[in-house]
Amino acid sequence: MLGYGLLKFGLVFSTLLAACGVSWSGEQETVASVGSPAVLGVSAVTSGKGPSGTLFLETDAHTDPGTLYNAKVVIKSKLRPALIPVGSFLVNGSETETQGYAFDLKSIAQIDQSTLDEIGRGDASVQIDVTPLAGATDLTTKDVLSVKKAEFEK
Amino acid sequence: MLSRREVFQLAGASMAIATLGGSQSAFAATAAKPVRRDINDVAFGQEATDKYRRAVGILQELPSSDSRNWLNLSEVHKNFCPHGNWYFLPWHRAYLSSFENICRDVLNDGQFALPYWDWSMFRQLPPGFIHQKVDGADNPLFYSARAMKGNDTLSSTLGAEADVIFNEGNIATILEAKAFQDFGSFMPVGQNNSDSSWQRKRGYKSTLESGPHDYLHGGVGGDMANPSISPHDPIFYLHHANLDRLWAKWNSIGGENEQSSFWTNFVFKGNFPLADGNPGGDIPISKLVNIADQEYRYEDDVAISISQSTFQLNSFTTQNWVSGLEVGKVSELIVANNEQLSDGVSSVVEEKQGEKKLVLLLDGVTTPANIGTTVRVFLNCDYLTPATPLDDPHYATSFTFFVAQHDHATGENHSLQSFAIDITETARNLAVTGGRLEDGLAVQLLPLTFDGKKLDDNAFSVASIQIATI
């Protein structure tokens, strides 16, 4: 009964996400602007790029040099509604090339083995919220950050 | 036996004790090396600031034809620095060593060592960097193209994120990384040999690089936020000295460097000028990975050099701390003098530069509701207020609270904390300045929020204190 409930919730949730244009399958670049997070499916891979349990992100900044934004990274599990904070990084317009970031998900207290398994099955997405840093005056909702790739090392 | 968490707390409080590896002889062998010290160190910070100021001033005055000219040295970073890959830490170690040797040369001071800025413990610009003039002359450490000014804190320039990024708990978590790449950033994507062409290819930033490294550059702002010109700001070198110190600390607590030949066989080719300004040769990573092979050491090297068997705590007194603590208010406990305490304090104070340490142990510390709280620890200060500067001779250290001990979901505290605070230098300073040590020891705690705001319902408590030597 519980399993059916979870399955039903998962189907409904997936349908809702699909209706919102959100994909779980990854590899589809999305853009974050202030007030509008980027959401990208996490691809589960065995690339050898790093230890098992590492989340790798690739991003491009679209901000002007000297204008800084905070990018907060959370994991959205397909079956669990709670957002799990993973960490954050600085969006710096002075860094014009694609940037790569790695987060050790095994060190996150709220991520247990079942959640890691779920991410390892490709059943999770990453959401990135961007906010101007204290003192920033440019608060417009222009594009801040493209999230090009989100990969989880199985 | 200290737990791993306690070890980090000790390290965070600049404790010079050890639980891992090394030997007394290792300490003796490194004792003559120039010592990189905390720029905010009560005893040595001013001297370190003055020396660094003189060096920067000289380099800024060198002609542009000299490779050691201040802006030319910044070009080295622009032209060769790797970021976002596993050469990040060793390259910057070599860059700082080159810079440090040049400073020694222009100062004609073989004992010069770069100070470091421990931004986890002190989240404002070091005092020597704030003012445009010092003694009526231009201050070479002041930099106008810097967003962080005066008494700004990292929280005021970065917002609440700074309280997480620079929290000691986050630093402790970073130091718990098991693999080098987790700690010091990842191999460039697709790298298949150790050719120098991989030096600046993109890998992935570890939390150390994307967190404290990047945010500090952003928090100071201005030119520091631009990788092409960030070393224009004299604070750059102190920031990276602290990252280098954390690498040494990670090694000291068991972190093992990368074993891949793509990393160990890598060579930085002709990147760095020599002390006399002539072009430097090749520097292999193999010469950079061991802190013991470098021409400097960190002041807390003792922490990696004393074997576990030498750790012994001699407690003189334990007293309960009855009153609660509130943000902005001084709480004080006077430890009455007695023969044992007097002898213990004297034995450390009179040793002057020995290995024996006087420590204050705070036990049963509850966590305030707002963990963005720092607690300043003073001894015997008659005039203590929130405005009392951290270079006051009565100041010992500051500590803050570990995020990891909060349950993120419920916000509950699961355990009390204990802090060990090294008060050796403070006691020595007070002995020199007549700080009435003979009357007893007044331990004073002053909690303040990072953003300076007064908070209600933020009380916490300390169960008891001990004074001890180790």
- Helix/sheet category of chain A: alpha+beta
Which residue ranges of chain A are poorly predicted, with pLDDT under 50 across at least 5 consecutive positions? 1-26
Number of helices of chain A: 2
Largest interface, by Cβ-Cβ below 8 angstroms: which chains and how many residues each? A-B, 34 and 44 residues
- Report the helical percentage of chain B: 25-40%
Instruction: Return Rg of chain B in Å.
Output: 22 Å
- Structural class from helices and strands of chain B? alpha+beta
Strand ordering within the main sheet of chain B:
7-14-9-12
Distance between the termini of chain B: 13 Å
Annotation, overall tally of beta strands of chain A: 9
Order of helices and strands of chain B: HHEHHHEEHHHHHHHEEEEEHEEEEHEE
The whole-number mean of residue pLDDT values of chain B reads: 81
β-strand percent of chain B reads 5-15%
Tell me about the largest β-sheet of chain B.
4 strands, antiparallel
Largest sheet of chain A, described in full?
5 strands, mixed
Oligomer: heterodimer
Shape of chain B: globular
Count of helical stretches of chain B: 14
Mean pLDDT of chain A: 80
